[in-house]
């Protein structure tokens, strides 16, 4: 484990406040995230961006887990964080990591992953709500409802409109040359 990731792992273990099940979920998230960051296949480098998933993504995932202490929450959070990766790479590489870290059978992972299409991930991210019961006390897990959609196709936003993920009165910014 890289030193930076080790510090992240240790910091987030302290956030669990002595709750064993929450500590286990955070440890699993840290291990999955570490394996994603250290993966050499290129599956987790959309557009060839080596550091596409950064510390901000990781801490956001931890905050998301703290929003609920259900074990299903961590799987959902992982899928929402990494769910935009093309299907075959996602199934193959993230599936293998989840199988190893979470100890879930490949068939069960495949079944769960099939429910988290990129469209569903965007929909859930945009429809999150504020939670006043966050274990982070003053944090209250405030949702900003911002979502970055990266696509090679200029008309991808139209799919979000057609599927009622976005409404025509939502604001959006398009810039093909930013990445």
- Kindly name the structural category: mainly alpha
Shape assignment: globular
Q: How many beta strands in the DSSP annotation?
A: 0
The residue-averaged pLDDT reads: 74
Q: Low-confidence parts, pLDDT < 50 over ≥5 residues?
A: none
Residues in helices, as a percent range = 40-55%
Between the first and last Cα atoms, what is the distance in angstroms? 29 Å
Order of helices and strands: HHHHHHHH
User: How many structurally independent domains?
Assistant: 1
Task: Give a quick rundown of the structure.
This protein is mainly α and 179 residues long. Helix content is 54%, strand content 0%. The two termini are 29 Å apart.
Describe this structure in words.
It is a single chain. This protein has eight helices and no strands. It is mainly α and 179 residues long. Helix 5 crosses helix 6. The two termini are 29 Å apart. The mean pLDDT is 74. The protein has one domain.
Keywords:
179 residues; 8 helices; single chain; mainly alpha
Layout of helices and strands:
Blueprint: H1 3-15, H2 20-38, H3 55-66, H4 71-82, H5 87-102, H6 106-114, H7 118-126, H8 156-162
């Amino acid at each position: 484990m890289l030193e930076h990731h080790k510090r992240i792992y240790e910091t987030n273990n302290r956030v669990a406040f002595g709750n064993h099940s929450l500590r286990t979920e955070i440890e699993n998230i840290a291990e999955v995230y570490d394996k994603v960051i250290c993966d050499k296949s290129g599956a987790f480098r959309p557009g060839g961006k080596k550091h596409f998933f950064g510390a901000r993504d990781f801490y956001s995932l931890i905050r998301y887990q703290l929003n609920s202490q259900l074990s299903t929450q961590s799987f959902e959070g992982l899928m929402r964080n990494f769910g935009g990766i093309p299907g075959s790479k996602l199934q193959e590489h993230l599936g293998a990591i989840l199988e190893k870290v979470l100890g879930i059978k490949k068939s069960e992972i495949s079944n769960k992953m099939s429910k988290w299409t990129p469209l569903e991930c965007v929909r859930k991210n945009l429809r999150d709500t504020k939670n006043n019961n966050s274990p982070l006390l003053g944090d209250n897990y405030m949702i900003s409802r911002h979502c970055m959609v990266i696509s090679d196709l200029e008309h991808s936003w139209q799919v979000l409109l057609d599927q009622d993920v976005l409404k025509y009165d939502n604001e959006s910014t398009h810039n093909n040359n930013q990445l």
